[in-house]
Automatic annotation (TrEMBL), chain A:
<dbReference type="Pfam" id="PF04051">
    <property type="entry name" value="TRAPP"/>
</dbReference>
<dbReference type="InterPro" id="IPR016721">
    <property type="entry name" value="Bet3"/>
</dbReference>
<comment type="similarity">
    <text>Belongs to the TRAPP small subunits family. BET3 subfamily.</text>
</comment>
<dbReference type="InterPro" id="IPR007194">
    <property type="entry name" value="TRAPP_component"/>
</dbReference>
<dbReference type="GO" id="GO:0048193">
    <property type="term" value="P:Golgi vesicle transport"/>
</dbReference>
<dbReference type="GO" id="GO:0005794">
    <property type="term" value="C:Golgi apparatus"/>
</dbReference>
<dbReference type="InterPro" id="IPR024096">
    <property type="entry name" value="NO_sig/Golgi_transp_ligand-bd"/>
</dbReference>
<keyword id="KW-0256">Endoplasmic reticulum</keyword>
<keyword id="KW-0564">Palmitate</keyword>
UniProtKB/TrEMBL annotation, chain B:
<keyword id="KW-0524">Neurogenesis</keyword>
<dbReference type="GO" id="GO:0005801">
    <property type="term" value="C:cis-Golgi network"/>
</dbReference>
<dbReference type="GO" id="GO:0006888">
    <property type="term" value="P:endoplasmic reticulum to Golgi vesicle-mediated transport"/>
</dbReference>
<keyword id="KW-0333">Golgi apparatus</keyword>
<dbReference type="GO" id="GO:0005802">
    <property type="term" value="C:trans-Golgi network"/>
</dbReference>
<comment type="function">
    <text>Component of a transport protein particle (TRAPP) complex that may function in specific stages of inter-organelle traffic. Specifically involved in the early development of neural circuitry, likely by controlling the frequency and amplitude of intracellular calcium transients implicated in the regulation of neuron differentiation and survival.</text>
</comment>
<dbReference type="InterPro" id="IPR024096">
    <property type="entry name" value="NO_sig/Golgi_transp_ligand-bd"/>
</dbReference>
<dbReference type="Pfam" id="PF04051">
    <property type="entry name" value="TRAPP"/>
</dbReference>
<dbReference type="GO" id="GO:0030008">
    <property type="term" value="C:TRAPP complex"/>
</dbReference>
Amino acid sequence: MSRQSNRSTDSKKMNSELFTLTYGALVTQLCKDYENDEEVNKQLEKMGYNIGVRLIEDFLARSSVGRCQDFRETADVIAKVAFKMYLGITPSVTNWSPAGDEFSLILESNPLVDFVELPDNHSTLIYSNLLCGVLRGALEMVQMAVDVRFAQDTLRGDNVTEIRMKFIKRIEENLPAGDE
Amino acid sequence: MADEALFQFLHNEVIQYVNSAESGDTENGRCVSKLENMGFRVGQGLVERFTKDTARFKDELDVMKFICKDFWTCVFKKQIDNLRTNHQGIYVLQDNKFRLLNQLSAGKQYLDHAPKYLAFTCGLVRGGLSNLGVKSIVTAEVSVMPACKFQVMIQKM
């Protein structure tokens, strides 16, 4: 009996309110600690990056997804597998650039903002910026440098929440000397 | 439904952030209280949602049982293993396999880091109780990882 088999995926699911509220507490604390929203956005992105770097391991171990052949496949895996696994939502992938190096994730609902209203004096705060960091960190660990940012956000009065992802370059693996 | 790994990573990141802002021994207490306060706020919100369809609690013990069973199950997916009380307002909740310590080594290696990983949960419990009309002080102690004890001292209003 391996340890893997008696751990059902269901036992991995938890109350998402705990996550949402904890995230809210973190953003609140950041807003107290930093003077301006730009700084808070930067911090959230940084934390997300740290999470993404670790989360990719968990993801690859549990999803048995192999290496992606192209950016389109990457987009599909992110939307259909990763978002579903971790947040229980499936964003749609749209707005491909002609070169195929840029796309948008449209989130119908964003679990992070379930109980959130932005006060007027925080109009430039990108509340869910953690997600950008997570995506960037995770993809960096699979040799992809990407640029991730929020193009639209329902919290700021847009109709949908849109995350724009742009492929920058493939990161070359540096083999240690003599490890050919 | 969110995934559990996500919460654990976020929790680690919160601890990391709060600690990086403070340094030195004197600041250690401040870190813990910052984390505790965050937990308090979250605990308040959670209890509001969990109890919106439940019957009113009979007494203090009833409230504590709710924390040990339903609340713990919702947050950590297991019940508290052992609840003890001296019937004078002190309760000890023992969790033999606390989820947030489970990722750390089970020996003595990280024992002095354990308080950071418990502060948020102390706040959770205090916040939960406070919204059920019970004022308390919650502290945690670890002697052997990953087991820990939360001591709840009820403050008379």
